[in-house]
Design a protein that fits this description.
The chain is an alpha+beta fold. 39% of the residues lie in helices and 18% in strands. The protein contains five helices and six strands; from the N terminus they run βββααααβββα. Strands 1-2-3 form a three-stranded antiparallel beta sheet, with helices on one face. The chain has a three-stranded antiparallel beta sheet with strand order 4-5-6, covered by helices on one side. The protein is elongated. The termini are far apart.
């Protein structure tokens, strides 16, 4: 199927649809002398052609199973935050085409939905971490580290390290990664550390 732009013949004023019906072999020939926008809509709606060259699915097309969509959405969200992807990746047209190839009826969530879902996952993970730390039955060692970005902004990362109650399994995780102001002395570190541990407690 040719792109929609190949199925339009421009006139001095307006344009004319030249899509050929595969059954009758007749050219559509409908004139749009006042608005080419209406012509684009006509080509997409009447002839099921999009500007990207794909056939538009009829409105009666079978929709994706809601449970399957939810599973794909969750997998997509996990990929975004585990691989440190920008939220805008879901708006990339080539990425969306790739998802369509995997499942033609799947419509990926937008950037705002991805951001909302990641925040939901974050708060749930924080709640689970709190429960885990409270049930350790052992002392928890905290490790701090400073990191400076190329723009000279400074950050403090705090990690927790502990053993399971039976002392057979060692755990560690990042409690927080926060921006911190100068000076990087004991008092500044203590205030930031206290704020982080109060949030994680």
């Amino acid at each position: 199927m040719l792109p929609a732009s190949r199925n339009i013949r421009k006139k001095v004023k307006g344009a004319r649809c030249i899509v050929v019906d595969p059954k009758t072999k007749q050219e559509c020939g409908k004139d749009f002398s006042t608005s080419t926008t209406n012509l684009w809509r006509h080509v997409e709606k009447a002839h099921r052609i999009q500007d990207e060259g794909h056939v538009v699915r009829p409105s009666t097309a079978r929709r994706i199973n809601p449970q399957l969509k939810e599973e794909i959405d969750r997998a997509l969200v996990r990929w975004v935050y585990h691989d440190f992807q920008a939220f805008r990746v879901v708006s990339n047209k080539y990425f969306r085409r790739l998802l369509k190839k995997c499942h033609k009826n799947y419509e990926p969530p937008g950037r705002k939905a991805i951001s909302r879902d990641i925040k939901t996952h974050f708060f749930e993970a924080r709640r689970q971490l709190k429960d885990l730390l409270q049930d350790t039955g052992s002392k928890i060692a905290l490790k701090t580290g400073y990191w400076s970005a190329i723009n000279r902004l400074s950050f403090l990362v705090v990690t927790a390290h502990w053993f399971s109650p039976d002392h057979e399994t060692f755990f560690n995780c990042v409690l927080d990664f926060v921006r911190i102001e100068h000076p990087h002395d004991g008092e500044t570190t203590f205030k930031a550390l206290k704020k982080i541990t109060d949030t994680s407690a």
